[in-house]
Structures are given as C-alpha cells and as structure tokens.
Amino acid sequence: LILLGASLTLPGVVLIGIVCVVVALTMELRHRHGLDGVTYSRDVGTGRAVWGDEVEIRLTAWNAKLLPLARLITDDEVEGGGLDVVELPLARTEEASVSILRSRWSLLWYERVTRHLHVRAVRRGVFELGPVRLEAADLFGREVAAQERSLPGTFTVLPRSVPVVTALPSRAP
Fold first, then answer.
1. I want to staple 121 with a disulfide (CB 3.0 to 4.6 A). Which of 49, 70, 82, 105 is the partner?
2. What is the DSSP letter of 138?
3. pLDDT (tens digit, 9 = 90+) per residue, 11-65?
4. Going by DSSP bridges, is the β-strand pair 48-50/153-158 parallel, antiparallel, or unpaired?
C-alpha cells in the first residue's frame, strides 16, 4: 500500500499502509514480549485468620516495560473452597475443591497497580494458593501471550474460640 500510494501520489493510501505496518509490528512485539517485565504478587498478610474474620489480600501487577498492556488477566488458583472474596466472586472449575480468583488489569508503561481484596473465612482449614496463570491480550481481546507461574501460598483459617459456660464454676474444665 505504501509503494502503491507513493507511485500514484495518493497520501491517504500511504497513510493506511503506514498504519498497517505499525499495527503489524506492534502485534509481533506483543507476541514476543507480551509478558516480559510483568510481575505479579499476592500478599496474604499473616496468612491466618479465625473463622468468621475478614482478612485483606493485596494483589499487585506491575508492568516494568515500555510496551503497555491493554489487558492482563490473572487466574489465581485457590484450593480448599472455603474462602469468600467480598469484591468479586470466585470462578468454579471442574474440580470441586479448586476455585479461581480472576482479576483483569489494564497497565500502562511502568505502571504498578495494587488491589485490596477482602476475604471472609467461612470454613476452617488450610487453603493452598497458586499457581497463577497470566494472560496478556491485545485491544481486540485476542490472547497474545500466556504463562503459568508458581506462586505458592497458604492461608489458614483457625476454629473460633467460644467460652464454656457451666452451671457450677467449680466444675469448669
């Protein structure tokens, strides 16, 4: 298109050809380096809670490169099935005991975003977190790059303590 527009002296055709070349080069760069320089972290704080408590989990995505990410999807596996995220629902999987904490991000160049989620501990036990699957997509929603990273973590929900009330205080355990 660039050569045809230049030979026929049609500046609009030349411009369309240049736009097509820039889009093709950008797509190739995204395919090759879509997740390079992208870090993702999960901070569970102390990693333990008492049944019925609400605990904050911080998810951080950082794009440490010049190429912006139109869409970054993170799928964090949660094994155990007894956690309830207040801000967004957990996605179900084929396995009954595994859920997915899915987050969608849009990151500019050298941008770091932290999300604060609140988790209600509705069942006691030990919950395994990770691995996480990162998926970068372009503006049209097509998957450009995908990667699974091992980001292990545990979250323990302790049983609730209740006072023992007896009729005779001398017989208290």
1. 49
2. -
3. 999 999 999 999 888 777 777 777 888 999 999 888 888 888 888 999 999 999 8
4. parallel
